[in-house]
Structure formats: C-alpha cells, structure tokens
Design a protein that fits this description.
There is one protein chain. The chain has 385 residues and is mostly beta strands. The chain has 3 domains: 176 residues, Sandwich (Immunoglobulin-like), CATH 2.60.40.640; 34 residues, no CATH class; 139 residues, Immunoglobulin-like, CATH 2.60.40.640. Strands 2, 4, 5, 6, 8, 9 and 10 form a 7-stranded mixed beta sheet that branches. Strands 13, 15, 16, 18, 19 and 20 form a 6-stranded mixed beta sheet that branches. Helix 2 crosses helix 3. It is elongated and about 100 Å long. This is RAB6A-GEF complex partner protein 2. InterPro entries: Rgp1.
C-alpha cells in the first residue's frame, strides 16, 4: 500500500498568471503485522510513473458541450484521463509534468516531489454560475505496472486579474531607466518587482480611489431621494457604502431595498441554434424602512466567495446594485405640527414601487485574504493498494 498526499503551500486561491506550487508525497506505511516475506523484493512497493497537470473544465447545460470534444487541448487527451469520468469540456490543460519514473519505497520510506506550474494569464476564472461553470483542479496521476491509472484531484480557485492590469505591470517591469543610471557601490541593489505584485498594486490604486457620484432619484410625481455612492470600483470582501438624502424629496419614500446582483449573460448553442440567455443572481441585501427619515446610509458587504467581473467567448459577468423604492403620495403621512399632540398614522396607504439598477465594477483581491475568509482543505490523500 502507498499513500499519495498533496499539499498546497500557499492556499487554494490563485490569480490568473500566478505560479501554483504543490508538494506531492508518496509514503509506504509500515505493516502493523510481522509477516514473513517470500523474497526481499516483497518488502518494497513500486510505482511505474507519476505526473501532474492543471485542468480547467467548462460545464454548460447544452447537450453539444457534453458531446463535442473537437476543441480539446492536445495535452488533455493523456493517460491522466481527466475527461473520461466527467462531462465537462476541457477549457485549459497545461502540459503534463513527469514527477518520477520507477519509484521504489521500503516500509516507512517517503519521497516528496514539488510540482510548479503557471496558470495561463488568459485563462477564465473559477465560476459557478447558473448557465456556465468553470472548475479548476490539479490532476495527479500515478500507476503501478499492469494496473489502472489512479488519479488524485486537488481543487483550486482562480481569480481574474484582467489583461489591462497585467499588460501595464509587464510594461513597468520592462522599463530600463534605472539600469542606465550610474552604479553606486554604496547603495543596496533594489530587487525588481514581479509583474504580479505590480498588478496587485495597480488594483489597490484603482479600488482605493474615492470618486463620489450623486444620483437624483425621481419618478413621475417628483423627487424621491438623492443617492451618493463614494466610489464605483470595489474588491472582494469590501463594503459598498452609500448615503440617501431625503431632505430634497417631494415624494414620500416608505422603504428602500438595495441588492448586490451579478448579471450572467451567455451565448449557448441549443440544437445548433445560438440562444442568448441572461440569468441574475442576488448575494447581499440591505432593507430599511425610511419613512420620516432625513438621511440614512447603505452598507452592503461583498462576499469573498463570488467571482469578479470577467468576459470570455462563452459568458460575460457584470455586477450592479439593484434598488427598489416604495413611494406614496398620501397626504396623511406629512409630519404633524408641534401643536398636534394626537396624530395617528393611516391604516392603509396607496404605494408604488419603482426599480433602478446601477452598474459597479468588481475586482479581485489578494488571494491570501480570500483563502483566509473561505476555508478549504489544502491537503488531499489517495490510497493505492
């Protein structure tokens, strides 16, 4: 018996373009029983080979996606057989890397191999939508001689970074102005920053930039409220903060509801016909009864498990704030005068509901923050008997 265990060194969340590092350990546990072996070779356990690669599978509800394999990568059709047990189409498949050939382990002995692979920068992010799903895993395959291939799948999550941010970071890394300056032996040589670190800095600058925008919400009867959103770009895990100003209103607002929604728009082939589909999912809600208020605020958390905005040739994901205002023109809701000490609210009032959607930009954040907030198993094990 051999135990195969895999451990991710830096958590299970990565950015597109980042290097994945995983240690794979092969261990031959000692037998608890003292069994006399027939020969010296019986003491050892052996494996013929082991390899690893990263797969990204795409799942849709269309039948053609389950049957069409013409667009698969060359390296997807290997001995690992990642496509034989699942119906998803291989979207990304890296070149398999051989970990070893002909490994022999004595009882109590273990061998550890380090698998490193860069996630392609143009790969889609991990996403579990209603119409399209993208799933990533590290597939580790191994085999005994004349035995079937055994697979150990290590799921990972990939966040989108954006081609514009990566291009800007690469351009900054390629600048040579510092190298042309005269060398000073008394100055410490500064290490050149990696494109991924520069892209995270650019992402920090974009989402930290304050740019308040004011919106006057009106209907056919007049002004409802004045809404202020302090910035249009956010990262995963942040709070969306805004304010409502009812002092400018000419129409009473009874209550307001705000939802964080993602709009999934895809072009799926059904019976060889292109069918454009749109699905809307709601994640966070803020509800408040605001009758009689002059001011109130909006605090809407962004979950860490959602996927930032991205676009592929199959699906486009965008984010928005969806507002619902319940208004009324009933005159009996006007605030009473100071002399009126016996004011009673009406039992029924006529209301109207108006809706409004405001697009926002949602970006990724540091993968360490996501891994700490969304816990997942970083160790995976496979028993080969």
């Amino acid at each position: 018996m051999i135990e195969v265990s895999a451990r991710l060194h830096h958590g299970h969340v990565f950015l597109s373009g980042e290097v994945v590092e995983c240690s794979v350990t092969f261990f031959h546990p000692p037998s608890p029983n003292h069994i006399l072996s027939q020969s010296f070779a019986d003491v050892f356990e052996s494996l013929a080979w082991a390899s690893a690669q990263i797969h990204c599978q795409c799942f849709t509800g269309s039948r053609e996606n389950k049957e069409d394999r013409s667009g698969l990568s060359t390296y997807a059709d290997t001995a690992l057989g990642a496509t034989t047990q699942e119906n998803g189409k291989i979207e990304i498949a890296t070149r398999p890397k051989i970990l070893f050939c002909d490994l022999r382990l004595s009882p109590g002995q273990s061998k550890t191999f380090i698998y490193r692979e860069k996630i392609p920068s143009d790969s889609p992010p991990s996403y579990r939508g209603q119409l399209v799903k993208y799933s990533y895993k590290i597939t580790i395959g191994t085999q005994r001689v004349n035995s079937p291939v055994k697979l150990l799948r290590v799921p990972i999550r990939v966040l989108p970074l954006g081609e514009a941010l990566m291009s800007e970071a690469v351009a900054l890394c390629n600048e040579t102005t510092e190298e042309l300056t005269p060398a000073n032996p008394f100055l410490e040589i500064r290490q050149k920053e990696k494109p991924l670190d520069l892209a995270l800095q650019s992402l920090q600058n974009i989402t930290a930039r304050r740019n308040p925008n004011f919106y006057m919400i009106t209907n056919v009867f007049g002004k409802v409220t004045r809404f202020c959103l302090f910035k249009p770009a956010y990262r995963l895990g942040e709070d969306i903060i805004g304010t409502f100003d009812f002092t400018v209103a000419t129409v009473n607002c009874v209550q307001v509801s705000v939802s964080l929604q993602c709009v999934e728009e895809t072009l799926v082939k059904v019976n060889k016909d292109s069918d454009k589909q749109v699905k809307i999912s709601t994640f966070s809600n803020h509800h408040e009864v605001c009758l009689g208020y002059k001011y109130t605020q909006l605090i809407l958390p962004i979950p860490l498990h959602v996927t930032p905005a991205f676009t592929t040739n199959l699906v486009s994901l965008n984010w928005r704030l969806h507002f619902e205002f319940v208004t009324t023109t009933h005159k009996g809701l006007n605030p009473p005068s100071p002399e009126d000490t016996n004011w009673q609210a009406p039992s029924e009032i006529p209301i109207e509901t108006m809706v409004w959607s405001l697009p926002i930009r949602l970006y990724s954040t540091n993968p360490i923050h996501v891994a700490q907030g969304v816990h997942a198993n970083s160790r995976h094990k496979l028993i080969i008997r």
